[in-house]
Amino acid sequence: MPNSIFLTxxxxxxxxxxxxxxxxxxxxxxxxxxWSTECAGKNVYLLPFLGASxxxxxxxxxxxxxxxxxxxxxAVATFKYGDLAFNRLDEYLKAIGDDDAASFYLDSILMGDxxxxxxxxxxxxxxxxxxxxxxxLEFPEEVMIGVAGDFARLYSEYLESPPSFFYFSFLTCxxxxxxGRATCESELAPQPRLFxxxxxxxxxxxKSTSISKTVExxxxxxxxxxxxxxxxxxxxxxxxxxxxESNGGNKRVLLCLDEFKQxxxxxxxxxxxxxxxxxxxxxxxxxxxxxxxxxxxxxxAHLSLLAASTIATYERTWTSAFFDIGFTNxxxxxxxxxxxxxxxxxxxxxxxxxxxxxxxxxxxxLVGEExxxxxxxxxxxxxxxxxxxxxxxxxxxRLDTYAMRFMVLLAVNDGRDHIDDEIVRRSVRLVDWQLAxxxxxxxIDAENKVARLxxxxxxxxxxxxxLTKRELQQYAHAAxxxxxxFNAALSNLKKDQQIDFDMERKRVLLKExx
Length: 514
Description:
The chain is an alpha/beta fold. The chain has 3 domains: about 5-135, no CATH class; about 140-440, Rossmann fold, CATH 3.40.50; about 450-510, Arc Repressor Mutant, subunit A. About 45% of the residues lie in helices and about 15% in strands. The chain is built from 21 helices and 18 strands. Strands 1, 2, 3, 4, 5 and 6 form a 6-stranded mixed β-sheet that branches. It has a 5-stranded parallel β-sheet with strand order 9-10-13-8-14, with helices on both faces. It is globular and about 80 Å long. The two termini are about 25 Å apart.
């Protein structure tokens, strides 16, 4: 049977399901979130007790709480049995009449056999759909554990960059050091290297600050020679030089790019092989290229990437060469917004930095020259449930690769020598969040201005929720295109039933994606 579970809001329904040996959990209104843990990574069938007046609010809380922790839950409105429809579980089972038959019918529902044993689903209100879409894009701060979490919280307290910028900058630096040293018990032997791109609306979001201060921390904390950090590269030949240990290089290279657009421009130089080289080194440690005039050979090369860009530049800087080669789905996109706190940021207490350095040294000592992390049985079960039921789309490519890299990285970062269910849940939570981020910040690859503007409008509504026409024009930068093109794009989206107009509230809103 697929990894599925019934979630009920009513204790009597829970006891009925338990008596029939059905996998089930009971929603709790208090701080006990064990029901959420039980549902993580599973296909959830929510059984609202529709006779209760407060159930709409409960359903809302459940859907928001489970968002990102499992595939989209199915909120059951009615069970169908023959020509009859029941909105209460007890009445449905009474009509079936036999416990064995009831168990068979419920098993069939959990297996997704809606044709033989149909259900109807509760219609989710448009406003809740919009709220869920916005909630889906919020960074899940509960994943910030271990030394990286401590670092992010400390540095964001004294500087204006958001914690997520510091957290992923730290994990990227740590993964660069651990590549080739830490992995898990799998034939794939994933390396915890990341290609991280930090996104902000403008320079006010302190993207470069988070990168430079994190790199500075690692430079001060590590012995010379364990990692080569470069602040730019102009060609594949130049990248090869960074790995040349006979000439001051290192087999582990962290490429830091303060302006990602400059890197993109270098890859577009005629006859340059920088793009295919970096693209290949995401999953491989080897790259060979030979032409009549030159030869490039890289073996045992461990490349990590930590870059910054504005959102507008990221969405418009690409050419078809990047999409054709699959470069964009190799990037880990980290959007965020800085908060204005200090005209002159205070100094971080040296003793706090020393504590972080000591903790970093402890986890590196744990890894040593090589560490292969084992999985607990529960961790394997949980990850298999996510993997078998994960969403598939153009935006989900390589997210399973990132899930495995995160599991290694988060476990070591938290000082563990194995991967347990808690690490899997956090890793899966991260990649599910990343899927939502990729959809919202999908680079524009449109063939004409109207199509480009249509894509921009859809993306803005996904990120911001319902907007007035004036607000939408502002966020979509409609002035660059002109009023006629903006109205044409709105009309096309309306005809295609991708957007709708709330005439009462004077808002443009995005329809739910099926």
